Amino acid sequence: MNESEYGFEIRSSIPVLRMFDEAKAKDFYLDYLGFEVDWESRFSPAAPVYMQIHLGEALLHLNGHATEETPTAEVNIPILGLQNFCDYLIGKNANYPKPIAVDPRYQGRNTDLNLYDPFGNYLVFCSQTTEG
Fold this sequence. Notes:
This protein is of the alpha/beta class. It has helices at 22-32, 82-91; strands at 16-18, 36-41, 50-55, 58-63, 74-78, 101-102, 112-116, 122-126.
């Protein structure tokens, strides 16, 4: 289908991830992974935050209004230079499990870096090239 002939254009989606602790989220996403905050929204100064963050072209929304019953999410984030990103994270000596590029399809290519955030969401930084 050519959506432009119908007068609309579908753009990239933005995953919304559950988050229970703003400080833990900022430590993981901003300090560790290197994301930057685009904006934050609160209903009141004491209300939980809802924010948009980005790293390169990847956009995520973190929802501080989530509860334990809110489902976790799995997000695939395309990356070029997967091993370099892995080495960058290792170099931070952060209090998170050591990241390792893996070959999930057993094709002789380390194409994925799999990380869980502090709230159970699963991030897969994935490359289509042979790396590592």
